[in-house]
Amino acid sequence: MRVYDHASGPVLVATGRTHLYEGHGPRPVTALARAAAGAGVERAVLTNANGCLRDWQLGDVMAVTDHMNLSGASPFDGPLFLDVSAVWDPELTAALRGPCQREGTYAILRGPEYQTPAETRALAGMGVDCVGMSTVMEALALHALGVRVAGMSVVSDLSFAAAPTDPGLVVEAAARAGETVRVGIEAALAA
pTM higher than 0.85, yes or no? Predict the structure, then answer.
């Protein structure tokens, strides 16, 4: 983590994350988010790469408007009955609509395998636009701690494509979207 001076105030930047598929539970996955909230972060812009279930283009960036937690995990223990209908802050999400080419629903699966064709069809039929293996645990934890949350998801795999997923192309597509993500972060900071 690093802290940068910005016109809107100090900005905490973290790269990388811990995933459920690494064999960790939700507490380690959300440790960075909880530390950021404890340090006084008021808003967070979470980013990820995804498998796209729509007829979109590699490198498109989707503003996350909602999510489906299909990981089988929760970042909470005990009877914390949290209203998650507004995890994705409407004002911050509106700020992302300018820079982002798309907006929609992101679903988390545990991973590390990509979904099967049958799973892809089922997810698309449920209204999921993009799927990945991160972000939702952190968003839930931040929301519970009073942090405003926005999300951007980079289309790095076309799940309905005839060719198998090439992990190298996933990384390339995510890198090409860097400028859009940067502009989106600036827009969310200014909102």
Answer: yes
